[in-house]
């Protein structure tokens, strides 16, 4: 079986992929790593048996034993690093958000078409067990016609700021960096979002984040078929909820994160799902596996650059709606 | 219980939800006593009277006969939503204090008229927004009021209720039909107002689920309402009535503050090392009976001590006004300001 070479840039979140070197079933090997902090590089090389480590992205791209670059840097760097990798003849797995503007998305879509190389945005919340389960029940038709979908994102960002200060220093734009999780989860469960109406606010749970930005969002959405949905992001004291919490209402059943009720079962008992406890890295590795296996089998991967562009376009529409005082805004889909 | 001069007589119009009021007759600590019951269905009157055969109850199917009685000081209005305005007006003008089940009324004009009537008659008025009398919401409010949750960052509420069995029990909701923005969404709207204050603006999407053919086709029964509060906080409300009964609390509340989060019955506080889940356990309560009795006791206290009820006509009117703005937002496709100048 083919074994692809992976090069990772950004060992913060990117370290999630390192354990694949210890997984004999994984048809790829991390052969090179890159980070601006060389002490991270050296530690990862030693721990995971990786031969090549560098703080030079060019040096990583020069490696002929690397077929696929995994981009796990701060959001604003994704466009240039992705385009550069494509032009170096590499496929690119890029952490969410693929981009932070439609202009950036166009650059990536253009480069992918020009080079014939593949791009996969790592939208990990498609790959967590509750959302895979929800999708399965939708696809099986058990929930009937789906007419409402919600995906909410609540997280205490204070510890996240502690280990990734760039989020408040640059700062991260949470419509792209945060809501891209919810947006893609919604797209996964129901299809394209065509309209949004949004409010944003600065709640100020952690005042390291700039006061003139927004970090709390409520968004109502419409899908292509007229279905309604909604998403929210709220930084808060650790909520007693999963990070991303989905609800799916259908004509014959209701799914809420780890529970389901079906009309088809007499008495409509609440059925609980007892998912295995997983680290977040498990979802990252599932994304990477889908990408690698799709490349090897020469079949389309689950998500490509057009999906990434559409997620960002929903983000653009959310900002436009907030800027116009909450007026509904159409989402661009043609990429 | 026997009648005495220290008792405060109550008459009930509408014995569906209104029958819960009769529980007060068995509360030895209350001076309230239901003395008259009315329903357009004489069989319901006879049945309820039979269930309380130890009580002396005036029975009628004509509500004006209750308003004419001098031994009735409080009228409880539990008729279908669209009849509330008429019953409120007639009761207040007859000099009665009023407890009216939610929704107080079903339009902004009616809300204004109710406020004017209460002012003019000087009677006391309470809207039976039951959520304010549910223990887990009362606990959340106390935690917020006491500062344990800190400053409010974000809040949301929902009311999700599979109406199919409810249509079986109360067919008027399908045939009248009930307007679920007022009759349903008023619960989470009022709940959120209680925590976050006046709603400045709403942005709403609506949808007709078509889940039950008895409800008029094309009439919306599902609503997603985003809100801006006057204090700058944003929040949101989900009111969904065409769905398979979800595995959630029917009425739900999440309140996020700078010091803690409260979701349903679970609180997390910064001040507890490692932020453990802090799960509050409440004694299970069936139906709305306990909530009705709690607001009756509150109303009784307001009468005796001459205080204004917490869920008074102004609170009721502001809730209805937010619902009215949400309908307007659906129609205009734009965010709409909420009239709060009552």
Question: Can I get a quick summary?
Answer:
The complex is a heterodimer of chains A (335) and B (342). Chain A is of the alpha/beta class and 335 residues long.
Please characterize this protein's 3D structure:
The complex is a heterodimer of chains A (335) and B (342). Chain A is of the alpha/beta class. Chain A folds into two domains: 4-122, NAD(P)-binding Rossmann-like Domain (Rossmann fold, 3-Layer(aba) Sandwich), CATH 3.40.50; 126-281 and 311-330, Dihydrodipicolinate Reductase, domain 2. Helices cover 34% and strands 25% of the residues of chain A. Chain A has eleven helices and 15 strands. Chain A has helices at residues 38-48, 57-61, 78-87, 102-115, 129-140, 158-163, 166-169, 174-177, 179-190, 280-297, 305-323; strands at 4-9, 28-34, 52-54, 68-71, 91-95, 119-122, 146-155, 193-201, 216-223, 228-235, 244-250, 253-256, 259-262, 271-272, 329-330. In chain A, the strands form two sheets. A nine-stranded mixed beta sheet of chain A has the order 14-13-12-11-7-10-9-8-15. Chain A has a six-stranded parallel beta sheet with strand order 3-2-1-4-5-6, sandwiched between helices. In chain A, helix 3 runs parallel beside helix 4, helix 4 packs antiparallel against helix 11 (305-323) and helix 9 (179-190) packs across helix 11 (305-323). The radius of gyration of chain A is 20 Å and the shape is globular. In chain A, 54% of the residues are buried. Chain B has a nine-stranded mixed beta sheet. Chain B has a six-stranded parallel beta sheet with strand order 3-2-1-4-5-6, with helices on both faces. Chain B has eleven helices and 15 strands. In chain B, helix 3 packs parallel to helix 4 (108-121) and helix 4 runs antiparallel to helix 11. Chain B folds into two domains: 8-131 and 290-312, 3-Layer(aba) Sandwich (Rossmann fold), CATH 3.40.50; 134-282 and 319-337, Dihydrodipicolinate Reductase, domain 2 (2-Layer Sandwich). Chain B is an alpha/beta fold. The longest helix of chain B is centred in the last third of the chain and has 20 residues, at 313-332. The mean pLDDT of chain B is 95.
């Amino acid at each position: 079986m083919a074994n692809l070479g992976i090069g990772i840039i950004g060992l913060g979140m990117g370290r999630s992929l390192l354990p694949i070197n210890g997984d004999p079933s994984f048809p790829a090997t991390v052969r090179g790593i890159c980070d601006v902090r060389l002490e991270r590089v050296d530690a990862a090389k030693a721990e995971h048996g990786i031969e090549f480590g560098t703080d030079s992205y060019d040096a990583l791209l020069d490696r002929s034993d690397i077929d696929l670059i995994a981009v796990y840097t701060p959001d604003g760097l994704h466009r240039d690093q992705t385009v550069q990798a494509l032009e170096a003849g590499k496929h690119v797995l890029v952490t969410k958000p693929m981009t932070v503007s439609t202009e950036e998305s166009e650059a990536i879509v253009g480069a992918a078409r020009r080079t014939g190389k593949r791009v996969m945005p790592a939208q990990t919340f498609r790959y967590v067990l509750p959302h895979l389960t929800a999708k399965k029940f939708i696809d099986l038709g058990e929930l009937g016609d789906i007419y409402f979908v919600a995906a909410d994102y609540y997280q205490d960002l204070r510890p996240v700021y502690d280990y990734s200060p760039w989020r408040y220093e640059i700062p991260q734009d949470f419509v792209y960096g945060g809501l891209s999780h919810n947006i893609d989860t919604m797209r996964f469960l129901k299809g394209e979002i065509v309209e949004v109406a949004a409010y944003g606010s600065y709640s100020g749970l952690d005042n390291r984040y700039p006061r003139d930005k927004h970090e709390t969002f409520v968004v109502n959405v419409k899908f292509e078929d007229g279905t309604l949905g909604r998403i929210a992001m709220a930084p808060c004291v650790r909520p007693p909820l999963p990070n991303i919490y989905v609800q799916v209402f259908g004509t014959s059943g209701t799914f809420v994160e780890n529970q389901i009720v079906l009309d088809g079962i007499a008495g409509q008992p609440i059925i609980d799902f007892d998912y295995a406890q997983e680290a977040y890295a498990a979802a990252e590795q599932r994304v990477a596996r889908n990408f690698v296996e799709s490349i090897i089998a020469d079949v389309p991967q689950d998500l490509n650059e057009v999906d990434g562009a559409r997620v960002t376009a929903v983000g653009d529409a959310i900002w436009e709606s907030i800027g116009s005082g909450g007026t509904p805004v159409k989402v661009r889909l043609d990429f | 219980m026997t009648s005495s001069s220290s008792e405060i007589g109550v008459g009930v119009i509408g014995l569906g939800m209104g029958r819960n009021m009769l529980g007060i007759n068995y509360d030895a600590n209350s001076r309230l006593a239901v003395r008259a019951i009315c329903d357009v269905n004489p069989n319901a009157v006879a049945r309820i009277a039979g269930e309380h055969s130890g009580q002396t109850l005036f029975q009628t199917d004509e509500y004006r006969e209750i308003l004419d009685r001098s031994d009735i000081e409080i009228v409880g209005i539990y008729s279908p939503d669209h009849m509330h305005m008429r019953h409120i007006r007639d009761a207040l003008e007859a000099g009665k204090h009023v407890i009216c089940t939610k929704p107080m009324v079903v339009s902004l004009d009616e809300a204004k008229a109710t406020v004017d009537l209460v002012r003019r008659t000087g009677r006391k008025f309470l809207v039976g927004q039951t959520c304010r009398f549910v223990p887990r919401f009362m606990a959340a409010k106390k935690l917020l009021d006491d500062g344990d949750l800190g400053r409010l960052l974000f809040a949301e509420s929902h009311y999700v209720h599979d109406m199919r069995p409810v249509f079986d029990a109360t067919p008027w909701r399908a045939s009248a039909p009930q307007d679920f923005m007022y009759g349903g969404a008023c619960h989470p709207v009022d709940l959120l107002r209680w925590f976050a204050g006046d709603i400045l603006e709403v942005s709403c999407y609506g949808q007709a689920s078509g889940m039950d053919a008895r409800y008029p086709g094309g009439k919306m029964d599902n609503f997603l309402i985003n809100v801006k509060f006057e204090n700058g906080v944003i929040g949101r409300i989900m009111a969904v009535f065409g769905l398979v009964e979800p595995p959630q609390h029917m009425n739900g509340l999440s309140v996020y503050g700078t010091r803690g989060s409260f979701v349903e019955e679970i609180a997390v506080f910064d001040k507890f090392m490692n932020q453990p889940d802090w799960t509050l356990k409440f004694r299970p309560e069936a139906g709305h009976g306990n909530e009705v009795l709690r607001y009756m006791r509150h109303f009784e206290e307001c009468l005796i001590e001459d205080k204004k009820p917490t869920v008074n006509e102004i609170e009721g009117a502001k809730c209805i006004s937010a619902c009215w703005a949400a309908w307007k937002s659906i129609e205009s496709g734009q965010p709409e300001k909420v009239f709060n100048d009552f």
